[in-house]
Amino acid sequence: MKFCLNMDTFVISDTHFGHKAILKKEPLRKTFAKERGFKDFDLCSVMLWNSAVGKDDFVLHLGDLYFKEGWQHLPKLAGKKRLLVGNNDLKKYVRLKKIEDWSICKKVKLKIENKKKIFSKLEAKWGKSALKDELLNAVVIDLGAERIMFSHFPVMDRKKNDRYAPTRDVLDDLYRLCDCSLNIHGHTHSRNTKNPFCLNMSGENVGFVPIRIRDVLSIRP
What we know:
Largest sheet: 5 strands, mixed
Number of helices: 7
CATH superfamily: Metallo-dependent phosphatases
Order of helices and strands: EHHHEEEEHHEEHEEEH
Radius of gyration: 17 Å
Number of domains: 1
Distance between the termini: 34 Å
Strand order of the largest sheet: 4-3-2-1-10
CATH class: Alpha Beta
Number of strands: 10
Helix content: 25-40%
């Protein structure tokens, strides 16, 4: 399936289908579902997704898609979907190969000029093994007046002793080398970074509804 990434593509992150622990960590999920007449947040999430996305629309999911039996909700989601692998997708995303209209992005894709030079600089600094890390995945593309990095982790934002620090160090460097102006990311849920160039697409921050890239750019600070 050829995936189309443009202004009309939808984006969302951190749906966490089937993840009970996230309901305690992010209580907004239960509240949001209850206000809409649902006892089950996942069913509410599917409804909200399908209220915005049509069968021929493209959706870029920025990671942390599902847990355990949450995969059963994935075929119900409208659109042609691509997952940018997040930390909670490791060892799970292979199941998507069996589900129609899902594809996987588990590496860096640069849709800009001078990409060979950029990869060479990354390899020289971090080594070949670092570039093979399946969590080091991102898409860099020029859309409108922006050069955007789509990634699961936000750039230039880190807690102390972050266990994914080696991956994120390379990601930060990639953002700088590509001279990006914007990072559209997930991972942080209801917490936003202090960086004005980082836009959080986690479910909690977008009302659990995929949003078109053109609309994301229109609300940029």
